[in-house]
From TrEMBL, chain A:
PANTHER family: DIPEPTIDE TRANSPORT SYSTEM PERMEASE PROTEIN DPPB-RELATED (PTHR43163). Keywords: Cell membrane, Membrane, Transmembrane, Transmembrane helix, Transport. It is found in: Cell membrane. One of its GO terms (cellular component) is plasma membrane. Belongs to the binding-protein-dependent transport system permease family. The chain crosses the membrane at residues 9-30, 102-123, 135-162, 182-201, 238-262, 282-308. Residues 96-301 form the ABC transmembrane type-1 domain. Its main location: membrane. It comes from Nonomuraea glycinis. This is ABC di/oligopeptide transporter inner membrane subunit. GO terms for biological process: transmembrane transport.
UniProtKB/TrEMBL annotation, chain C:
It is a peripheral membrane protein. The keyword Iron-sulfur does not apply. It comes from the Bacteria. This is ABC transporter ATP-binding protein. GO terms for molecular function: ATP binding; ATP hydrolysis activity. It comes from Nonomuraea glycinis. The lineage of its organism: Bacteria, Bacillati, Actinomycetota, Actinomycetes, Streptosporangiales. GO terms for biological process: peptide transport. It holds the Pfam family oligo_HPY. The keyword Membrane applies. Gene3D superfamilies: P-loop containing nucleotide triphosphate hydrolases. Residues 9-258 form the ABC transporter domain.
UniProtKB/TrEMBL annotation, chain D:
InterPro entries: AAA+_ATPase, ABC_transp_ATP-bind, ABC_transporter-like_ATP-bd, ABC_transporter-like_CS, Oligopep_ABC_C, P-loop_NTPase. NCBIfam families: oligo_HPY. The lineage of its organism: Bacteria, Bacillati, Actinomycetota, Actinomycetes, Streptosporangiales. This is ABC transporter ATP-binding protein. Keywords: ATP-binding, Nucleotide-binding, Transport. Belongs to the ABC transporter superfamily. Residues 271-296 are annotated as: Disordered.
TrEMBL record, chain E:
The keyword rRNA processing does not apply. GO terms for cellular component: plasma membrane. It comes from the Bacteria. CDD domains: TM_PBP2. Residues 106-295 form the ABC transmembrane type-1 domain. Keywords: Cell membrane, Membrane, Transmembrane, Transmembrane helix, Transport. InterPro entries: BP-dependent_transpt_permease (IPR050366), MetI-like (IPR000515), MetI-like_sf (IPR035906), OppC_N (IPR025966). Coiled coil: none annotated. The chain crosses the membrane at residues 45-67, 110-134, 154-180, 223-253, 273-295. Gene3D superfamilies: MetI-like (1.10.3720.10). Its main location: membrane. This is Glutathione ABC transporter permease GsiD.
Length: 319, 511, 342, 343, 338
């Protein structure tokens, strides 16, 4: 297991390195730079702009930039923002809680609702309930989340003259305010997840419900409720876990629109703005962080598998 | 540049105040974006920074007047009680107020404001070559003969000097800040009505009342919160629910809707819509083609339909200068005349039109709609124009590299002299490579001309020349933004520039 | 055990239908048999002949299929049409089952102890602690080495034979009156098969449990069963005492089937006696006698009319038109009538 | 066709010969010793049978024989050519002459291929026939295995298991091979169908002079098919000899156990029940084989020596070879033909 | 007592087919019709979805005939007109006919959907199949590269590509293709690892078939079902993604009519002119719904018994909300272990 984990970590490191190289290569191709942006409206001369470029190291060839960055990174220095001069690590760490809260809550909502819908649909396979639930799930899949968010937001404002609190507060500071604030984004983000979880739950439930061991459990005289909730559901979790883990990795990277819409100070906004601002240190660092998150999520999923499935724990492949 | 999109003011309420001003309360005013570059005014030209600090935290020597009856650009004293311009125009003397104290924050600790601070500020500004030095370029020395007098010596007459000093960039900093005793990038200690209290990155800025403000009894409100809100739907919802006191939108439909629902809507003059035609790209090297383009587009219709409230303008803004051409004057120079446009094209040897591209740097949704409007109008005279959407960084880069046939952006300039600076030969912002000796001659004259009316006359000539002979840069309309305020906000007047001092006059009518 | 006791289980003219994309299909079409208390009845037949379906139907474990007609009497109590709850109470308590593939028949995510305890506590109120103790005891009884430790093992940690032992233990938790073993050794090696068969035999002997043993292996039948039911294409074609049927198969199918089994005595230099053709699926069952296209003794009538099950003596019946004209003169009687008699 | 128990045909060089085959599968943590020193000779036109429990390495031997896997060590030769040294081109040419039939009849047919192409694949691969020729040849093959031209354009799922296995055999026959490896070719079939296929295989052998490596776990089937039967246990051949004799008089304790475990189907015996001895223990795992004789933990006759020393192959007078210390008779250790060498 | 067994036993089915049937033509009209008929019969819901998709395709292809107006023509007197006889679904903020835009929007949206899905399907499958089949170092390298592409947050990739290439329909397709290709790679690789171990592949190898032949004739056809199913689901995801890109201003440039763009433009008028988002939303939902249903049906139809398991996993894991289904590490890992 340890060897396996090390190998995965090794792969993870390779992936992160490749990501870094990609990002540096891409940045080379991107038009415009932070200097032009910062110096607009200032009537500055070209020479001065070039001096500033040199200061940021933007005039070096890209491989020198990459090499310098790697050298610094190895020493734990991931750079500072071209704009605020803050350490990118601080920038990222300050914003990650919001994104994680949003992502986790959305996932939890999606997971809980999705599981319920999926289980009910599987248990009532072929019935009206099943049909309705699947329809419902697909309907949610086919509306972009920002549209859901806008409809909810506008609807509440029009009919109830209510809107979420404007200023983001952490859950520890003011729980009610936080809950109100995060509710709509979570719903918007969660519904899509719900639909895919429901789909997957249904199909893997059906798969387990048709399996031999479920027949054994039924033959023991166990109540259908228990059959479904205990045996079938638990056996479906592997697939659902995979989905959830990977959704987490993507949800975290994909909250840009929602974060902007609800003025949530998360990483989505940070990275989006950094790309637009050509704030390369921030872009690189965020991307690396995300890649790391992706890699870690995948390793975590593996560990979770092992937790759920004793066969994996003891190193046997999935059946 | 593009970032200066929301131009003038972000918050404003035009209606006459209800009842008498009363102190206290917390006002929540939308801030459309976060600062990008730290708080140091010597380094940053970020409009958001000016929105936040200029006038509200830092005072200026001179300010512009706002209020219920002020229509035009008019200077008024701020830290300088009075000023005097030497006959030759080469020396400016300012008498400073004696009752001004810095905010009571370490390391400045509420000491008195003195002439030395002004000297320190402007000396630093002259050295801060990267940013605003150009405004005071002819200034050769700044001296403080006594604690409350400052003298600016210039190398040549420089008529726009006072306007620039009132401009939002020229905040007066304490010497401690300039000398690095505190970090100007993270701290702001000024003389303004409000003190910076708290900043949560990407979330909000909080200001509290400066109890030692030199105007007794002001500011009225205790706290101003500036939550960062980008999305108009969220702003609208928050305005409706009363969580937000003031917000801005560029969308007339939204404004109308909110107005109907009992919110106060103030039409606030904003940045000019800027349209660039690059004569280095064929067929725009032919003046006739450029004229054809200018005349083929129904600018008035565009303003009416897309912006709602707008000014038909030439290059100079009516709200910052009396030199701006009026609507009729503009219409005469640049009529909507598709027939004539076709004729001009035919004369240029392009009777069947041609294909081209418009680089659109989007600031608000209306920009995109305007681009589509222009597209359709040009199509009618046979010019097939494709839209090329770019992000700000790409936009600024390509404009500076003259890498576009036509471009549309929002160029956030306010003052007449500032407008012309862009077209100087060496200017980085001379996107369309304007190179017109006559124009430059006029510009030099204007700077030397002390008399305002005469100077305005020169500006008019320059606008006419730009509209008829050059036609490389058009600021065809000035857009308006819609400041929307809740019922309780009183005394918040619009301003063409970032003008935080007016917040001192704002009060809340808790009803 | 040659004298049949009053039947514990009586299956009468059972039809099971499955919906398929091409319309409903009768996977089982008129199956009847009885199992008496303490008796071992084997059901043999080739793949797809409906053995599993018939047995699963007894307990309502058919999934998408349903019993379309017939009756299942457990001690005279009708199970067809009984409520879900009633069937559930029977499962495990009165009728237990073990299945072909032990690897996939145990829930991989629970320890075998948990699965045993679940079986114990479903039908009887019992503390977890007591259940665990009983589980260990049961594991010991089925011959699992080191049961105290193994009770915490997961299914995949056991070999196939051990897993099947656990299945037997689970089946026996509530001392059921009838144990249905659906090909319990097909997936196992011969050496292990012998062990499991031995286990079943001792368990059954010690507890007096009736055993319905489903298999396709005549040798297992010969080893284990008192009576045998031979199925073909969803129907019973012959049944009787094992000695009788194996020694003297009366139905041509049974005969051919037995012949085609290689034994140590099969001469190597001669071709194996084989049955031509293939087992039809229920959907494509031919008209008339379902075996007629492959039958060596086929004659005209076979392809037209479906033969009934002829009673040949007290304990014996066969489905073949040959019996109608049989000179032996045994009374041709349908099995249904026999059931009516007793 | 039939022949007596003439083993180890010395007259002609065997068609196929494997010597000391060892195959280890290494995974990250374990080494599975799937095959551990197996030697085999298949004379032309003969059948060598391989029986053993699940996991004893039968399929691995089959794959090694066809060089679908490369052995960890050992030698394989086919018609005098060393397969392990054969070049790619040589190997390809040789593949025409050796074919395999798998256990799972449906699984070994590509579900998306029509019979024509499935059976004709070897013809296309080796450029033997194309288009009409190919179709003709396939029809011929189909008829030979008891199918008809009507099946030419069907897909595998339209066939029953027995028919599918015939298609598999037809495919194996397409290139006129000399050797066919039947890896549990009849295990998945019902007895009645199994008999058909066995007959077919024998018939083909008689007609075409094929050699078979016939793998099964059913002793009776192997006995029926093979001229020589090899019994495998945990990757090793423990006993070999004529099937009838092996059955009648198993020598190796494992063979004995196996034979006695087979449930006896003897209708003529009125009461054979409970007569068998029940085998002890369970096969050990090939990833952790016991030291010494691999069978010793289950062997009723195990001695101390068995725990320490792996037995060599001993030739016993009846023309059989047994790998067991019990046969390490003082009489003739020199006679012991060391066919299998342990490490 | 035994009948003499014949080598060619005379099963009646065999007897009744004396002459070889004509080989089925590859793509005759009859074959297509037959295939369709069986599909309709076994998957009525899927058939309905197919019908809807055909409808969309028809509308898209014949947009000029179907649409009442030019989709970019601005009726400047009729800005934000509610639905009426003249404008069936009202007009937008530039006075363009919403119905016509929606109809032409089908063109853009379907084009983006089809091309993106098609190209990434081909690319991803090719990469996955080759990498999975040959394994070893190639596999490790290729998969790490694919992982890296996946590990970069989709939004960063999309933004960068949009910024570098500029927003256009073509570039939207390129950007989405880059983002989606790894998921096809994953599923194709996982399926290849599965198929590679099928006995029929081993049989082909035993025959001496070359790798290209095995890949083309044995591996590809047998993983196509799962890949196609994933494809039909990703297709729907692409259309949604396009709307998100448009919302961020990096999608198809105006005035191109596309559902995503219409949604993102119209969303500001939810209150004043709800028809601006209702109409494209409904079109989008129905299209997405159809593709989902078709995906389900395809899965059931193509593979009633095979591959069910792997497929269910995969199809559950499709785009869901965000950029990708980064699916099947579990699948590939499970396969790795063998
Ligand atoms: N769920 C189902 N849907 C449709 N048909 C089914 C279903 N289950 C079983 N059948 C059909 O019923 C017939 C009898 O199946 P059954 O499993 O009883 O056979 P069996 O005798 O147990 O065979 P085996 O020896 O292979 O286990 C088969 O032809 C099968 O195709
Ligand atoms: N590719 C492989 N990688 C790792 N281990 C393998 C591989 N192939 C086979 N083995 C292992 O080698 C041993 C022998 O396997 P093999 O398939 O040869 O046995 P077998 O006798 O054919 O068994 P069965 O009767 O079940 O087919 C088994 O323990 C098996 O798990
Ligand atoms: Mg069965
Ligand atoms: Mg094998």
């Amino acid at each position: 297991m340890i060897g396996y984990a090390l190998r995965r970590l090794g792969f993870g490191a390779v992936v992160m390195f490749l990501v870094t190289v990609f990002v540096f290569m891409i940045m080379r191709l991107v038009p415009g730079d932070a200097v032009s942006l910062q110096l607009q409206d200032t009537g500055v001369s070209k020479a001065e702009a070039d001096a500033m470029r040199a200061e940021f190291g933007l005039d070096d060839p890209v491989w020198v930039q990459l090499w310098t960055w790697l050298g610094d990174a190895v020493q734990g220095d991931l750079g500072t923002s071209f704009y605020s001069g803050e350490s990118v690590v601080d920038l990222f760490l300050a914003r990650i809680p919001v994104t994680v809260q949003l992502g986790l809550m959305a996932m939890m909502l999606g997971a809980v609702l999705g599981l319920v819908v999926g289980v009910v649909a599987a248990a009532t396979r072929g019935s009206m309930v099943d049909g309705a639930m699947r329809l419902f799930a697909v309907a949610f899949l086919s509306v972009p989340n920002f549209v859901v968010a806008l409809l909810v937001l506008t609807g509440l404002a029009i009919w109830f003259a209510w809107s979420p609190p404007i200023v983001y507060t952490g859950p520890a500071e003011d729980f009610t305010s936080w809950a109100q604030q995060i509710a709509i984004p979570v719903i918007a983000l969660g519904t899509g997840g719900m639909a895919s979880v429901a789909r997957l739950t249904r199909s893997s439930m059906l798969e387990s419900l048709g399996s031999d061991y479920i027949r054994t459990v039924r033959a023991k005289g166990v109540r259908e409720r228990v059959v479904i909730a205990k045996h079938a559901l638990r056996n479906s979790t592997i697939a659902v876990l995979t989905l959830l883990g990977l959704e987490l990795a993507t949800v975290l990277g994909g909250t840009v629109i929602i974060e902007r819409m609800f003025s949530l100070p998360g990483t989505g906004q940070l990275i989006y703005q950094a790309v637009l601002d050509r704030d390369y240190p921030v872009v690189v660092a965020c991307t690396i962080f995300y890649a790391g998150l992706f890699v870690i999520t995948i390793i975590l999923i593996d560990l979770l598998y092992a937790l759920v499935d004793p066969r994996i724990r003891s190193g046997k492949a999935l059946s | 540049g593009g970032g200066g999109g929301t131009g003038g003011s972000t918050d404003s309420g035009a209606a006459a105040p209800v009842g008498a001003p009363k102190p206290g309360g917390t006002a929540v005013l939308q801030l459309p974006s976060e600062i990008t570059n730290g708080l140091n005014p010597l380094i940053s030209s970020d409009p958001t920074l000016n929105t936040l600090l200029s006038g509200s935290v830092y005072g200026k020597l001179i300010d512009i007047k706002v209020g219920p009856n002020v229509k035009a650009w008019e200077l008024e004293p701020d830290l300088a009680e009075s000023w005097e311009v030497a006959k030759d125009g080469k020396s400016y003397t300012f008498k400073l107020r004696k009752d001004v104290r810095w905010h009571n924050i370490a390391p400045v600790n509420g000491r008195a404001f003195v002439a030395d601070d002004v000297v320190a500020t402007f000396e630093a500004l002259k050295k801060a070559t990267r940013v605003h030095q150009w405004m005071i370029e002819p200034v050769t020395s700044i001296e403080a003969p006594d604690e409350h007098t400052v003298v600016f010596k210039l190398s040549k007459p420089y008529a726009p000097m006072l306007d620039y000093l009132a401009y939002h960039f020229n905040m007066i900093l304490p010497r401690e800040g300039v000398e690095g005793k505190f970090d100007l990038a993270t701290q702001a200690i000024g003389t303004g009505p409000f003190m910076l209290d708290k900043h949560t990155p990407d979330v909000e800025w909080v200001f509290k009342k400066n109890p030692d403000y030199y105007i007794k009894g002001k500011p009225y409100v205790d706290v101003i919160k500036r939550p960062i809100m980008t999305d108009i739907a969220a702003v609208t919802a928050a305005l409706r629910s009363g969580r937000l006191d003031s917000g801005t939108t560029s969308d007339q439909n939204v404004a109308k809707q909110l107005g109907e629902q009992g919110l106060k809507v103030a039409e606030t003059p904003g940045a000019p819509v800027s349209f660039f035609i690059n004569p280095k790209v064929e067929p725009f090297d032919d003046l006739k083609v450029r004229q054809a383009v200018a005349q083929a587009i129904d600018w008035v219709g565009m303003g009416e339909n897309i912006r709602g409230k707008f000014n038909l303008t030439s290059l100079v803004r009516p709200d910052t200068s009396a030199a701006a051409l009026t609507r009729d004057e503009v219409l005469k120079l640049r009529p909507y005349d598709p027939e004539n446009a076709k004729k001009l094209l035919a004369e240029a040897g392009l009777p069947n039109g041609f294909s081209t591209k418009l680089m659109v740097q989007r600031v608000d949704d209306e920009d995109v709609r305007e681009a589509q409007w222009m597209q359709e109008d040009l199509a009618k005279v046979g010019i097939k124009m494709e839209l090329e959407m770019v992000d700000p960084a790409t936009g600024i880069d390509r404009r500076r590299k003259h890498d576009f046939p036509m471009a549309k952006a929002l160029r956030g300039v306010h003052l007449p002299d500032q407008v012309w600076r862009d077209f100087e030969k060496e200017s980085l912002e001379n996107y369309t490579s304007v190179d017109d000796a006559e124009l430059y001659e006029l510009l030099a004259q204007s700077r030397a001309e002390q008399d305002e009316d005469k100077r305005n006359e020169i500006y008019r000539k320059m606008q006419t020349r730009m509209e008829t002979e050059i036609v490389q840069v058009l600021y065809p309309i000035q857009k308006f933004d819609y400041g929307i305020t809740g019922a309780r906000v009183q005394g918040l007047y619009e301003s063409p520039i970032y003008h935080g001092r007016r917040l001192a006059d704002m009060w809340l009518n808790e009803s | 055990m040659t004298v049949p006791s009053p039947p514990l289980l009586e299956v009468n003219d059972l039809y099971v239908q499955f919906p398929t994309p091409t319309g409903p299909v009768n996977a089982v079409a008129g199956v009847s048999f009885t199992v008496s208390a303490g008796e071992t009845v084997a059901v043999v037949g080739e793949s797809g002949s409906g053995k599993s379906v018939s047995s699963l139907a007894l307990l309502g474990l058919l999934g998408s299929g349903k019993i379309s007609s017939g009756s299942v009497l457990l001690r005279g109590d009708e199970l067809v049409g009984a409520g879900r709850e009633k069937l559930r109470r029977l499962r495990g308590a009165e009728i237990a089952m073990i299945f072909q593939n032990p690897m996939s028949s145990l829930d991989p995510l629970f320890t075998i102890g948990d699965q045993l305890i679940e079986a114990l506590r479903v039908h009887r109120p019992m503390s977890r602690r007591a259940a665990r103790a009983r589980a260990v005891e049961l594991l010991r009884e089925v011959g699992l080495p080191d049961p105290e430790r193994r009770v915490r093992a997961y299914p995949h940690e056991l070999s196939g034979g051990q897993q099947q032992r656990v299945m037997v233990a689970i089946a026996l938790t509530c001392e059921p009156a009838l144990l249905i073993a659906d090909e319990p050794t097909t997936a196992l090696d011969v050496t292990v098969e012998a062990q499991i068969l031995e286990l079943l035999r001792t368990m059954q002997r010690d507890r007096g449990t009736a055993l319905l043993l489903i298999t396709h292996d005549m040798a297992v039948v010969a080893e284990m069963a008192d009576r045998v039911v031979v199925m073909y294409a969803g129907q019973v074609v012959e049944h009787g005492l094992v000695e009788d049927v194996l020694r003297d198969p009366r139905n041509p199918y049974t005969k051919a089937l037995i012949d085609s089994i290689p034994t140590p005595a099969t001469p190597r230099d001669r071709p194996m006696p084989a049955i031509a053709g293939n087992v039809p699926t229920p959907a494509q069952a031919p008209p008339g006698c379902r075996f007629h296209p492959r039958c060596p003794s086929v004659f005209e009538r076979c392809s037209v009319d479906a033969p009934r099950l002829y009673q040949l003596g007290e304990t014996r019946a066969s489905r073949c038109w040959l019996h109608e004209t049989e000179p032996s003169g045994s009374v041709a009687e349908t099995v249904e009538e026999v059931h009516r008699v007793g | 066709m039939a022949s007596g128990p003439q083993l180890a045909d010395e007259r002609a060089a065997p068609l196929f010969e494997a010597r000391d085959l060892v195959k280890q599968f290494r995974s990250r943590r374990t080494v599975v010793q799937a095959v551990n020193g197996v030697s085999l000779k298949i004379p032309r036109g003969r059948t060598v049978g391989l029986v053993g429990e699940s996991g004893s390495g039968k399929s691995t031997v089959a794959r090694l024989a066809l060089r679908l896997l490369d052995p960890t060590s050992g030698e394989v030769s086919f018609d005098g050519v060393d397969l392990l040294r054969a070049s790619r081109a040589e190997m390809r040419a040789l593949r025409r002459r050796m074919q395999i039939v798998f256990q799972d009849p449906l699984g070994s047919l590509n579900p998306r291929m029509r019979v024509l192409n499935a059976v004709g694949e070897p013809l296309s691969v080796h450029g033997i026939a194309k288009g009409k020729d190919k179709a003709d040849r396939v029809v011929e093959l189909l008829e030979r295995v008891g199918l008809s031209s009507g099946d030419l354009y069907k897909f595998s799922h339209q066939f029953s298991g027995g028919q599918a296995q015939r298609i598999g055999i037809a495919r194996a026959l397409a290139t006129d091979p000399d050797l066919i490896v039947c890896d549990e070719a009849v295990s998945a079939l019902d007895v009645s169908v199994q008999a058909q296929v066995l007959n077919l295989l024998k018939e083909l052998q008689a007609e075409l002079g094929l050699s078979y490596l016939f793998i099964a776990h059913d002793l009776n089937v192997v006995r029926y098919m093979a001229d020589e039967v090899c019994v495998m246990y945990l990757g090793e051949i423990v006993e070999r000899g004529d099937g009838d004799e092996l059955f009648a008089d198993p020598r190796h304790p494992y063979t004995k156990m196996l034979v006695s475990a087979v449930p006896e189907f003897a209708p003529e015996l009125a009461d054979g029940r409970g007569r068998r001895s029940i085998p002890r223990g369970e096969p050990a795992s090939p990833s952790d084989p016991p030291p010494g004789c691999r069978f010793h933990p289950r062997c009723p006759q195990a001695m101390r020596r068995c725990r320490e020393e792996a037995p060599a192959m001993h030739r016993v007078p009846t023309g059989r070879a047994v790998a067991c210390h019990l046969f390490d008779a003082p009489a003739a250790p020199a006679d012991a033909e060391r066919e299998a060498s342990e490490r | 007592m035994t009948q003499k067994p014949t080598l060619t036993d005379e099963a009646p089915a065999v007897r009744s087919a004396p002459k070889p049937p004509r080989p089925p033509r590859r793509l005759g009209v009859r074959q297509v019709l037959t295939a369709l008929r069986t599909f309709v019969r076994s998957q009525p819901l899927g058939a309905a979805a197919l019908l809807l998709i055909c409808f969309f395709v028809f509308v898209a292809v014949f947009a000029p005939l179907v649409a009442p107006y030019d989709p970019v023509q601005q009726f400047r007197r009729d800005i934000l007109e509610p639905p009426s006889g003249t404008y069936l679904f009202g007009t937008d903020d530039l006075g363009r006919d919403v119905l016509s835009r929606t109809i032409y929007g089908a063109q853009t949206s379907l084009l983006i959907g089809v091309v993106t899905t098609g190209v990434s399907l081909v690319l991803g499958t090719a990469i996955g199949v080759v990498s999975g089949y040959f394994g070893r170092a190639l596999d490790v390298v290729v998969q790490r590269v694919m992982d890296s592409v996946q590990a970069i947050p989709g939004i960063v990739l999309l933004l960068f590509i949009a910024v570098i290439l500029g927003p256009s329909v073509r570039n939207t397709i390129i950007a989405l293709t880059v983002v989606i290709t790894p998921s096809f790679n994953r599923i194709a690789r996982a399926e290849t690892l599965r198929v590679r171990q099928e006995p029929y592949v081993e049989a082909a190898r035993a025959t001496g078939a070359h790798a290209p032949r095995i890949l083309a004739l044995h591996v590809l056809p047998n993983l196509l079902a799962s890949v196609l199913t994933l494809g039909s689901l990703i297709f729907a995801g692409v259309i949604i993604a396009e709307s998100a890109l448009s919302f961020l201003g990096i999608g198809a440039p105006p005035p191109t009519p596309s559902w995503g763009l219409m949604l993102s433009e119209g969303v500001r008028y939810v209150e004043r002119a709800p028809w601006l988002i209702i109409v494209p939303s409904i079109a989008l939902s129905i299209a997405v719904f159809s593709f989902n249903l078709l995906g389900d049906a395809l899965r059931d139809h193509l593979d009633p018994r095979l591959q069910r398991r792997a497929l269910d996993r995969v199809t559950g894991l499709w785009w869901g909300r965000r950029m990708l289904s980064r699916l099947a590490p579990s699948l590939s890992r499970a396969a790795d272990k063998n």
